[in-house]
Amino acid sequence: MTPKHFNRFLFFKLPSAWLCGVRVAAVTQETCAVTVRYKWINQNPFRSMFWAVQGMAAELSTGAMVILAIKKSSKNVSMLVLNSKASFTKKAKGKITFTCQDGDRVVKALQTTIANGEPQTFWMKSVGVNTEGVVVSTFDFEWTLKRKS
Question: Among residues 54, 69, 71, 23, which one has the least CA distance to residue 137?
Fold first, then answer.
């Protein structure tokens, strides 16, 4: 699956994210980068990007790797976010890139749940930086994988 496939998926299955400008820039089994640009449709009253739009981009940067790993496995596995945490350190203006480099955690959890059938949970971190390289927000998502019978 390429960024183009994920962005088409956004258009049809997550149109609010697509309309807000969330786009997958790059995705591999190890890492994923998702961008979103501050604009009128995703603003808050404080002249920066609404926190929920940042959350959509951050979640996609983790979830895209989960989707990719499940698809590559050809197994029937469900995925769900159980918990999330976020911290905001600077106003999000301009183009923000959310990057997750926790693909190894996905692979390990997926292999375990496929091997023994037990649900697996794991945390993934996505860091959002502006074009100057300054961190604007950090999100952590707890994912669960469960093999379907």
Answer: 54
Q: What is the DSSP pairing of strand 135-147 with strand 77-88?
A: antiparallel
Spans in the chain with pLDDT lower than 50: none
Number of domains, the chain:
1
pTM: 0.94
Residue in this structure with the two tokens 């059938």, named with its chain if needed: 117
Residue 77 near residue 69, CB atoms below 8 Å:
no
CATH number for position 57:
3.10.129.10
Q: Report pLDDT for 2.
A: 87
Domain containing 92: what range?
A: 3-147
Angle subtended at Cα 107 by Cα 58 and Cα 86, rounded to the nearest 5 degrees:
25
Give the Cα separation of 133 and 141 in Å (integer).
22
